[in-house]
């Protein structure tokens, strides 16, 4: 069984590579700025309000954020990708972290044709549009 663990500084460049793969897989409209992504990930590793989990070929990164309508913290996923079958384990690790932090809910994003997360207890709440 593949191991899911908290990311360490030595994982950053590997995660940046996976961010590139994530963008390609979902047809993301924003090009990856590798130095920016590496700095953001490094900052997340030292931030108690953020988390990054990794596996051999996967990652999930997120942080606690309030919304404009309520100060309660929501665990917002900023990237989630795996090619080694650990996607669900990464998600469960993120959900566990969110629960431990007292997050009101977990917010995830998928590609428009991404997997249906209702079987995992999620519901669609918004649709993102870009121009």
Describe this structure in words.
This protein is α+β, with helices and mostly antiparallel strands and 131 residues long. A 5-stranded mixed sheet has the order 1-2-3-4-5, with helices on both faces. Strand 2 and strand 3 form a beta hairpin. Helix 1 packs across helix 2.
Shape: globular
- Cα end-to-end separation: 41 Å
Query: Could you state the order of secondary-structure elements as H and E?
Result: EHHEEEHE
| Rounded average pLDDT | 94
- Helical element count? 3
Q: SS-based structural class?
A: alpha+beta
Q: Strand-residue fraction?
A: 25-35%
Low-confidence runs: none
Helical content stands at: 25-40%
Count of distinct strands: 5
- Adjacency order of strands in the biggest sheet: 1-2-3-4-5
What radius of gyration results from the CA coordinates?
14 Å
For the sheet with most strands, the description reads: 5 strands, mixed
Looking at this protein, list some descriptive labels.
131 residues; alpha+beta; five-stranded mixed sheet; globular
Please give the structural blueprint.
Blueprint: E1 5-6, H1 12-26, H2 34-45, E2 50-55, E3 58-67, E4 70-82, H3 87-100, E5 106-107
Parallel strand pairs: 4-5
Antiparallel strand pairs: 1-2, 2-3, 3-4
Helix pairs in contact: 1-2
TL;DR?
The chain has 131 residues and is α+β, with helices and mostly antiparallel strands.
